[in-house]
Amino acid sequence: MTDSDLAEIETFGYERARDELVNVVKMLEQGGMDLDDSLALWERGEALANRCEAHLAGARRRVEDALSRREDTEE
Predict the structure, then answer these.
(1) What is the pLDDT of residues 31-72, one digit of tens each?
(2) b vs e for 9-38, b when ≥16 Cβ sit within 10 Å of the residue's Cβ?
């Protein structure tokens, strides 16, 4: 996986990263690729999964911050 591939993935929204990750998993499950292609696809899948995790962590923080602000105004 090239640096430009990683940079591209970093621009993906959650839904796009998730959808591409689903496609990567399907392709890997089908098999039939040589080892180098399989490894490259696996690396892309890892990068996509990390992007999804980052989005979910950010969403979790936003919810926690909103709940904290609400608690502060109720006191």
Answers:
(1) 999 999 999 999 999 999 999 999 999 999 999 999 998 888
(2) beebeeeebbebbeebeebeeeeeeeeeee
